[in-house]
Amino acid sequence: PEAELQARFDALIEADQRIEPRDWMPEAYRKTLIRQISQHAHSEIIGMQPEGNWISRAPSLKRKAILMAKVQDEAGHGLYLYSAAQTLGISRDEMTEQLIESRARYSSIFNYPTPTWADMGAIGWLVDGAAICNQVPLCRASYGPYGRAMVRICKEESFHQRQGFEILLELSQGTPEQHRMAQEAVDRWYWPALMMFGPPDDESPNSAQSMAWKIKRFSNDELRQRFVGMLVPQVEVLGLTLPDPNLRWNEERGEWDMSEIDWTEFNEVLAGRGPANAQRIQHRRDAHEDGAWVREAAAAYAEKQAARDRV
Ligand code: 3HC
């Protein structure tokens, strides 16, 4: 009976055990995992675009090779996460449809343009740095396939973050023009990177339940604070500054005081009215349409194979 199944589920969560695809789970648990994992996968796939934009214009062969490897990793992370979401009963086609019909969320951060090469450094250092802060705790998410996918993804994220830091360090120590380019990129990406962690805790409708189910291990504001604490010493080494004159450590509160985040901008981007939302979805839609013939050919080939095996 349901009550017994619910009790068993609650006991597994209580004991910090994994819930696996074949285990009974409350529908709401399944639903929120499909929501979060599919959005996470969409973020990885859309996230390929801002960086892909610079592969053909990288300043050296070394930088081009590194950027290609990173974008390829993002694609792999996306496919990994779509597979994890599929274990919950949603199909790949359904998730793809939701994305190209603008019915799916993906991380706000990918709706900003990348006007200079220094953005590749800022994205690696700030966006992948924020992703690491957010994804390391997700390695312990109660849903098995999600937590295990995170372990593999986090390993590659640290390479992504390091190469971004290195790009910024080289520019910062270069000509005055290069130094200025690096500083402008940090100024452009700092606040949107803080928004990646989600709305403030007292305006986060999913957090309480997500933490009770041990999907989310730390609150949005806790991880945001942890991320800022990571950036302060690193921006010193870079010889750059963070664009928040009010940022300072508050001893008695044991946390960083910072300027108000522009939540209007956040809500605008989430509503699809960010600088590059339409362009990102259009690009994904075009790629899907351009790839239709490959999917049809593969399906026809598989059908022929199956028919041959049947004789
Ligand atoms: N962008 C878009 N939507 C966001 C958002 C953001 N930065 N922050 C919050 N939201 C949405 C939530 O999805 C939720 O909407 P929904 O109920 O329709 O899904 C709403 O705003 C309220 O936010 P909550 O805090 O209540 O929602 P969550 O508990 O889901 O917390 C989250 C938001 C922290 C982003 C959480 O979903 C999460 O940890 N997701 C997985 C990690 C992820 O997606 N990271 C961003 C991608 S970066 C990346 O992967 C690429 C990297 O490799 C470079």
From TrEMBL:
<dbReference type="InterPro" id="IPR012347">
    <property type="entry name" value="Ferritin-like"/>
</dbReference>
<dbReference type="InterPro" id="IPR052703">
    <property type="entry name" value="Aromatic_CoA_ox/epox"/>
</dbReference>
<dbReference type="Pfam" id="PF05138">
    <property type="entry name" value="PaaA_PaaC"/>
</dbReference>
<dbReference type="InterPro" id="IPR007814">
    <property type="entry name" value="PaaA_PaaC"/>
</dbReference>
<dbReference type="InterPro" id="IPR011881">
    <property type="entry name" value="PaaA"/>
</dbReference>
<dbReference type="InterPro" id="IPR009078">
    <property type="entry name" value="Ferritin-like_SF"/>
</dbReference>
<protein>
    <submittedName>
        <fullName>1,2-phenylacetyl-CoA epoxidase subunit A</fullName>
    </submittedName>
</protein>
